[in-house]
């Protein structure tokens, strides 16, 4: 028999017996049976018994043979001082005890003192009962706490919730009262719910109530017209389900005002697809529309023209005038561009100081005219804070859909390269990339990037930016992802998706990773010394994984800048970790020795996700960004995320959702139990550490 399952702590045993030897023998027998026992023995003395019963005991054995207080008087004292204490009478050979009478006083059993097996079984039974009693008390306490929390949550809920018994209101929360125009509970308590239903809908609602009375477990959702106290009607969705209040069965009613729901959906749509700084469309929305447009064009549908607009001297303005001014500029540029876009065109704030415009296909002369108009409109605009900085100009790259352009990224790369050509020629102008010359243009772009990368490594022409990683569960640690930007000849930033692939081809990723690690740790040390509790997440590429000197470089950088290992989490992509498992394990072991956490990035698409969990000391996994695309409408993605999230948590690994670009994903991620989120919805990568982790 598993004693631990019966009682998982030492038994506090009280024995009332004149014989110390008998008490010790009893305790020894229990110990031999597998119980841990703390023994207290006293004589059958009223004064001593009263004092002892002030202690906390699990079970009491009372020897009938003990001299002193009578059995009946002693039991009465037990019941007075410790009414719930289980008592077993150890009867003597010539016992005259009245079994029925003693049981009526609360004694649990009468056991012959010399029958060790009977005594052991009786004690096991009483301990099991005691445990059940304790668990019941705990469950009742937990239930009461849960009911109190539920009541508090319902009262503070924005959903209109009421409880109805036999058609009458017995409770309603403030949102419900407000929805129907009531000021307090007295107005609605005892009021038939039928009086809140519009007359034309009463027959249907009565039918619903009858069906609920026949089947209390039934949950329903019905659209119905409701009636406010002022006589105004509104269409609502009414949800009913079984509930109870103070132990009495009733029906929970939740009412959603459909007009409010529609308004919320419209706001959510705007939050999901609009950029908060400029009120233009955001990057994910534009990218999706561009992908769809290209697919249509490749299937002999209408063609389209893309304008890639970069503000030329934005970095100079930011350095001299600060974030507030540059945010104002972005907003005003958006306002300037909006009148130039047609009703069916898609205008977006694509990122940092970049705007994109997608139009129906334009003839070359018309595309040139529009690009020229955009340049002159921005260049000639008088900005509201003009006295503080040089007015921005822009460089524009223009391209169109064609059979040679098969993806949104290809088309963006082509337009970006054209805009770079315009900027390198002095800016405040445009350049057109002909799709028929797509391959030549991209090859030329790669050559230019190769030269820029080599120059950047030798002249320190990279720059770091930081994006917050924010907890969904109350953790206020200041976690930032570290990202790298390449600077062009004008000290303007080039986004990583334009140069990292080329860096891989050139075999320069090890050098870039080392530059990032050393400079990030230097910045981290500076932030820590200023009092910030900043932690960094730093990427390690596939090439760097196989760099035998990387761990030593990390150690030297930490030592040089007096930084600590736990402040820096190094992350490796899921694909690279699987393809370089030996190198990853070797590096992970080294990082573990210097207390640097390990994260696996772009996680979630491998067939056996637990393989890495079992072989590596992982602290974080970061879900692949594509999970976030249309997450709210994709149940399969939600189920996959949920399964992987639970698996990770079972290995004590925290999870991070990346690429979070819209509000609709947040509720799903919170429900799934994801620990952290990162994405443009919170904040785009920035040079500063200004995110407020205490208010998100």
What does this structure look like?
The structure is a single chain. This protein is of the alpha/beta class. The chain has 4 domains: about 5-135, 3-Layer(aba) Sandwich (Rossmann fold), CATH 3.40.50.2300; about 155-260, PAS domain (Beta-Lactamase), CATH 3.30.450.20; about 275-435, 2-Layer Sandwich (Alpha-Beta Plaits), CATH 3.30.70.270; about 460-695, EAL domain (TIM Barrel, Alpha-Beta Barrel), CATH 3.20.20. It is built from 24 helices and 24 strands. An 8-stranded mixed beta barrel has the order 16-17-19-20-21-22-23-24, surrounded by 4 helices. A 5-stranded parallel sheet has the order 2-1-3-4-5, sandwiched between helices. A 5-stranded antiparallel sheet has the order 7-6-10-9-8. Strand 1, helix 2 and strand 2 form a beta-alpha-beta unit. Helix 11 (about 315-320) crosses helix 12, helix 15 (about 440-460) packs across helix 16 and helix 17 (about 510-530) runs parallel beside helix 19 (about 550-560). It is flat. The two termini are about 55 Å apart. Residues about 1-5 have low confidence and may be disordered.
CATH superfamily of the largest domain: EAL domain
CATH class of the largest domain: Alpha Beta
User: How many strand elements?
Assistant: 24
Structural class per helix/strand content? alpha/beta
Total domain modules: 4
The overall pLDDT average reads 84
Low-confidence spans: 1-5
CATH fold-level assignment of the largest domain:
TIM Barrel
Provide the helix percentage: 40-55%
How far from one another are the termini? 53 Å
CATH architecture of the largest domain: Alpha-Beta Barrel
Q: How would a textbook summarize the main sheet?
A: 8 strands, mixed, barrel
């Amino acid at each position: 028999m598993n004693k631990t399952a019966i009682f998982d702590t030492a038994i506090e045993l009280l024995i009332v017996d004149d014989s110390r030897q008998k008490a010790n023998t009893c305790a020894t027998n229990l110990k031999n049976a597998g119980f841990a026992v703390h023994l207290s023995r006293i004589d059958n003395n009223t004064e001593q018994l009263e004092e002892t019963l002030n202690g906390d005991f699990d079970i009491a054995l009372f020897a009938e043979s003990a001299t002193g207080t009578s059995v009946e008087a002693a039991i009465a004292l037990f019941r007075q001082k410790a009414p719930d204490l289980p008592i077993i009478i150890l009867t003597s050979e010539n016992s005259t005890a009245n079994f029925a009478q003693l049981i009526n006083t609360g004694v649990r059993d009468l056991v012959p003192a010399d029958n060790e097996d009977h005594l052991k079984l009786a004690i096991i039974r009483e301990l099991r009962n005691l445990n059940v009693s304790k668990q019941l008390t705990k469950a009742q306490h937990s239930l009461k706490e849960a009911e109190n929390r539920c009541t508090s949550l319902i009262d503070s809920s924005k959903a209109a919730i009421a409880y109805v018994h036999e058609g009458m209101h017995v409770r309603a929360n403030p949102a419900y009262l407000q929805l129907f125009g009531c000021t307090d509970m007295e107005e609605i308590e005892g009021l038939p719910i039928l009086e809140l239903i519009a007359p034309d809908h009463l027959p249907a609602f009565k039918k619903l109530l009858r069906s609920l009375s026949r089947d209390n477990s039934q949950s329903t959702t019905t659209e119905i017209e409701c009636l406010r106290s002022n006589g105004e009607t509104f269409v609502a969705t009414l949800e009913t389900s079984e509930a109870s209040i103070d132990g009495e069965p009733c029906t929970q009613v939740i009412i959603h005002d459909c007009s409010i729901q529609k308004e919320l959906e419209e706001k959510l749509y705007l939050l999901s697809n609009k950029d908060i700084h400029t009120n233009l469309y955001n990057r994910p929305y534009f990218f999706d529309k561009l992908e769809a447009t290209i697919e249509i064009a490749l299937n002999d549908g209408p063609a389209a023209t893309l304008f890639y607009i970069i503000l030329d001297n934005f970095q100079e303005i930011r350095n001299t005038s600060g974030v507030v001014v540059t945010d104002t500029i972005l907003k005003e540029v958006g306002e300037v561009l909006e009148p130039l876009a047609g009703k069916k065109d898609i205008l977006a704030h694509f990122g940092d100081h970049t705007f994109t415009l997608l139009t129906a296909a334009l003839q070359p002369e018309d595309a040139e005219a529009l690009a020229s108009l955009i340049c002159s409109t921005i260049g000639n605009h008088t900005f509201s804070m003009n006295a503080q900085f040089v007015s921005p100009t822009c460089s524009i790259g223009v391209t169109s859909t064609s059979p040679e352009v098969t993806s949104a990224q290809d088309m963006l790369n082509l337009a970006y390269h054209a805009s770079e050509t315009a900027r390198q020629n002095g800016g405040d102008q445009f350049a057109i990339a002909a799709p028929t010359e797509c391959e030549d243009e991209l090859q030329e772009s790669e050559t230019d990037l190769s030269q820029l990368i080599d120059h950047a490594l030798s002249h320190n022409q990279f720059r770091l930016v930081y994006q917050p990683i924010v907890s969904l569960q109350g953790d206020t640690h200041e976690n930032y992802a570290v990202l790298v930007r390449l600077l062009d000849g004008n000290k303007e930033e080039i986004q990583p998706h334009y140069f990292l692939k080329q860096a891989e081809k050139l075999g320069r990723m090890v050098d870039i990773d080392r530059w990032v690690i050393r400079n990030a740790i230097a910045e981290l040390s500076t932030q820590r010394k200023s009092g910030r509790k900043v932690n960094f997440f730093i990427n390690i590429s596939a090439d760097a994984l196989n760099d035998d000197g990387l761990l030593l470089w990390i150690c030297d950088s930490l030592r040089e800048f007096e930084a600590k290992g736990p402040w820096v989490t190094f992350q490796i992509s899921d694909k690279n970790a699987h393809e370089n498992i030996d190198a990853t394990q070797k590096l992970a072991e080294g990082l573990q020795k210097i207390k640097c956490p390990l994260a696996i990035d772009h996680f979630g698409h491998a067939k056996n996700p637990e393989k890495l969990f079992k072989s590596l000391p992982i602290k974080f996994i970061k879900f692949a960004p594509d999970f976030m695309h249309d997450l709210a409408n994709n149940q399969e993605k939600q189920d996959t995320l949920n399964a992987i999230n639970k698996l990770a948590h079972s290995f004590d690994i925290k999870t991070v959702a990346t690429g979070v670009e819209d509000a609709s994903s947040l509720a799903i991620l919170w429900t799934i139990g994801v620990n952290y989120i990162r994405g443009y919805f919170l904040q785009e990568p920035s040079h500063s550490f200004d995110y407020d982790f205490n208010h998100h």
